[in-house]
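User: Predict the complex.
Assistant: Input components as received:
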Amino acid sequence: MFKNSNHVQGRRKLLQFIMFGFFRVSAAINGIALLAIFYFLVSRGWRAITWTFLTQPPIDSMTKGGILPCIVGTVCLSLGAIILAIPIGVASAIYLNEYTFQGRVLRMIRLGINNLAGVPSIVFGLFGLAFFVVYLKMGVSILAGAFTLAVLTLPVIIGATEEGLRSVPDTYREASLGLGATKWQTIYRVVLPAALPGILTGGILGLSRAAGETAPIMFTAAAFFTPSLPSSIFDEVMALPYHIYVLATAGTEIEATRHLQYGTALVLIFLVLGLNLMAIIYRARLQKRR
Amino acid sequence: MIKSSNSGKSRCRTEKIIRITFFCISLASIATLVLITIFLFMEGLPVLKEVSINDFIFGKYWYPTDDPPAFGIFPLIVGSIAVTGVSSVISIPLGVLTAIYLAEAASTNVRQWVKPIVELMAVLPSVVIGFFGMVIIAPFLQEVFDIPTGLNLFNASLMLAFMSIPTICSISEDAIFSVPTELKEASLALGATHWETISRVILPASLSGITTAIILGMSRAIGETMVVLMVAGGAAIIPISLFDPVRPMPASIVAEMAEAPFRGDHYHALFATAVVLFLFTLLFNLAADHISHKYKQVGASTL
């Protein structure tokens, strides 16, 4: 009896050991996959990154030279997108979090945001082409690309802002309202300043998302090659993600420009990771302060 | 006194105006969704003048530039479903198991390392992952399996799995985390091992959240564009083996849009393909929303 129960206990423990082993293995596979990507890109790309590479335009039908126009283009597009998306995103989040509590309208709006977040990037691209480029006659330009990317980052910013607003204690609001401030005064003077870090984090994350997207800008803003930097928001631009795609699939000498492709990918990764790291550190510092 | 009440009234009106303004702005997301639908249909529907809806969706031949052209997107739909299906075979177990590990099994120290890894996976731009699949994984597969091309269904599924694991993992982890501790404690107090508690108590309790996570992960995979464009091989055929090249819907749209004559039949056909893709993801997202609302876990008593 005693022995038998011991035996059963042992089997149960063993099963647990095996299952936890599976958990560890699957977590490890993720880590290994990520490491492999970084290893290959860094080990093959770091030599391409020189001062010339970062500060010169491409030359000799993009087989030599640098990627300056792509960097500038990506910065223009993602900054433009954020500038357009932040006011709308923050206002939406304020309404959702401060003015309504429950009900059908709220549920509809949330459903809309969730679905917008799930729309494939290429659908955004075609929508941008049909609406901003053709219907609103913006042409293939920074403006059209920034609008398309703004629509895409809107859910990211709404989500982060809501998180920021939720983290403001209700006692702040009650104290302000108790002193006779109106709802708007409370939001403007008390809630928003307290939630500002969360909103900024959202902005940075949106920026990194916009910088990495390719499909939405392919038909709205990106150019195969431009010899000079953009001079107005109605110019088409080169962009880092699209440049990687072009060099890797449609360049004149795909094999000979491999180092440029790795280098461009590495610059894009550094840009995106840097932005995310900034957001993470910023958020962590704030949580400590709180 | 009277003046003060007057200002109270105007304060009230200002508040109302502000409230209404915010309400209108918050409708922007829905408005965009409606605009997307309208413009996709507007540019896509004219293709039905050329082919019937039945021939468009179930037609087996996609030769948009031939004369006469054939607009049958069935191979593209099958391609999309195939890459999504194969990638979920990889991503669901990895994503869910990692989520359980993070939420239940890992020590705080390990968690601190593993969680950022999963978050970083979500951050990598899709074009970089596509590039990686193209230059590293494809030659590798070609050599190991001795196949004519490394750009195929399997490679694309691997890369897509990498992209949907973070979605599946982080949403599942939230669901597992939100299971009330009382349930776990009760099970442990009855003498169950940690694994028995996980498999019989925690997982059933968080099943709706995990299902939502899986659906959203698949939705991400079916809509992903750059990866399938660069890695899937691009042949509009119905795949028979795991190593056949395929041409999922997003790949076809991106690859051909630049050459399609503006507002020609091909252009309309590509928009119509985008409508089909859009409806697929809409269906996935609505299903996820439905499940997460209907089976929402509220406290311990609803089990």
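Residues 2-47 of chain A form one domain.
Let me know if you want any component modeled separately.
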